[in-house]
Amino acid sequence: xxxxxxxxxxxxLAWLFALAAIIALRMLSGKIPVQGLLxxxxxxxxxxxxxxxxVTAFVIGALIIDLPGSVERRSLPEIPQSLLxxxxxxxxxxxxxxxxxxxxxxxxxxxxxxxxxKVAQAVIRRCRxxx
Amino acid sequence: xxxxxxALIGFVAIIIIILAFAAVVxxxxxxxxxxxxxxxxxxxxxxxxxxGKASLSRFQFLLFTFVVAGLFLLLSIETGAxxxxxxxxxxxxxxxxxxxxxxxxxxxxxxxxxQANEPHQxxxx
Lengths: 131, 125
Fold this sequence. Notes:
The structure holds 2 protein chains of 2 kinds.
Chain A: H1 2-29, H2 47-65, H3 67-73, H4 81-101, H5 105-110, H6 116-130
Helix pairs in contact in A: 2-4
Chain B: H1 3-31, E1 41-43, E2 51-54, H2 56-79, H3 87-111, H4 113-124
Antiparallel strand pairs in B: 1-2
Helix pairs in contact in B: 2-3
């Protein structure tokens, strides 16, 4: 049964790689649009996006570098807390930039549909209930 | 028939079913029936039928999902058992998915601020 499980695992891994390869090829050929990945809606380069992409690549690199040790530990690679904080900060900066750059940013904060204060209060209330 | 044989047959049957599902999905993706056009792009508010800018949060979520899933599978095959998933990795996925959700909410809200403002304007008048 162990052999079957191993074959199954390899098949699933091959499937995952095939899917990733299809996505990568379609991105390269332009069938999956990637324009605007690093630019603002106006077409100018967006520093927040660039730094987020760098941090993402850095985190993935850290994950892969720790791979040999993880086989011995029988665990997925461990990520340092500082790296997680870096990612959280980077993503917050990206979101902050996105909110600030939308043309009707003011409307976002005053509209009835989105009230950040109320959303934050609801999240805090739920967290308190969970604790 | 002995119990271990039955278990083996059941295991092989489940493997075949799951691999068949996986193969069908892959085939449909290759054939174009399952479209991946909007995988990392969001719909253009000006032309709802067209995809606009690519979303970095979607791209990041996609990358982390593939990397973590690939590493999990690889390590599980290597060690012969399910490997532990540390809280840090779950945090990583959580941060990425949270960013994706917030980004989507911001994008959706940004496309229709006028509609959302209408009730306020009506009250004032």
